[in-house]
Design goal:
The chain has 237 residues and is α+β, with helices and mostly antiparallel strands. It has 2 domains: 8-50; 66-206, Aminopeptidase, CATH 3.40.630. The chain has helices at residues 8-50, 86-89, 92-98, 104-111, 136-141, 164-178, 193-201; strands spanning 51-62, 76-81, 115-121, 124-132, 149-155, 183-188, 205-215, 219-226, 229-236. A 9-stranded mixed beta sheet has the order 2-3-4-5-6-1-7-8-9, sandwiched between helices.
């Protein structure tokens, strides 16, 4: 009988310990959703974990594009949160603005290298957006880890209608380009016309459509359409 190597046993132990943590986290997320949104929303969420279909429009910006500096109001402030200053920035008001319990994964992402962009107006949070580096969503859409994806943007209702979303996206893209990223992407739902207008006004250009069919939250059929044609691929997340 072969003797387990020194690396085999710890790896098996880690895998064994991971399963209970995963189950505990899944049960905790379901319980939070049930409490926050009720049984019907919880049932719909669980159903989407079995099978769902999504359509994404991808927009991109490259480093050679140049535009005027973003003009902020005297009371507005653009802020960047990363792993280095996250704990100092977190407070109950910001936690609520980010979504409370639903933002746990995003905050974990910041600790692992993602960025959070904030805009405040008279010290009130009015906009948020994230720059994602290594996520399942990017793998799903066919983007590599080296390309930051701006995602989960939100503008407070009271701050809408004055071009804040467009200015925030432009500032986020400027920061990422200055950090050395040659290409930046953002995705939106085809039905979100307001988001598309802000994305285009910020300097992004439409690149492609991605349609995905997801089974058991892991098995994926992806169809990509762009100027070169249509491509199909199957993958496992």
């Amino acid at each position: 009988m072969p003797i387990p190597s020194e690396t085999t046993v710890p790896e098996r132990d880690r895998a064994t310990a991971f399963v209970p943590r995963l189950i505990k986290e899944v049960v905790s997320r379901i319980a939070r959703l049930w409490k926050q949104r009720g049984p019907w929303a919880t049932f719909r969420f669980l159903l989407t974990r079995i099978f769902r279909r999504e359509i994404h429009w991808i927009y991109a910006m490259d480093a050679v594009q140049r535009r005027a500096a973003v003009a902020w109001k005297p009371t507005e402030r653009f802020r960047i949160v990363d792993a280095g200053n996250l704990e100092a920035e977190l407070n109950p008001t910001l936690d609520e603005f980010l979504g409370g319990p639903s933002a746990v994964e995003n905050i974990r992402g910041i600790r692992n290298g993602d960025l959070l962009f904030l805009v405040t107006d008279e010290e009130r949070y009015v906009h948020r957006g994230y720059a994602l580096r290594r996520t399942r969503q990017k793998q799903l859409l066919g983007e590599n880890d080296d390309t930051p994806m701006i995602a989960y943007c939100y503008t407070a209702p009271a701050a809408r209608g004055r071009g804040l979303y467009q200015r925030a996206l432009a500032a986020e893209a400027d920061y990422l380009r200055a950090a050395g990223f040659p290409r930046i992407v953002i995705e939106t739902d085809p039905s979100n016309i307001a988001s598309q207008k802000g994305i285009l006004a910020a300097g992004f250009a439409y690149e492609r459509e991605v349609r995905v069919w997801i089974l058991l939250n892991s098995l994926v059929v992806r169809v990509t359409r762009d100027r070169t044609g249509r491509r199909l691929r199957m993958l496992v997340l």
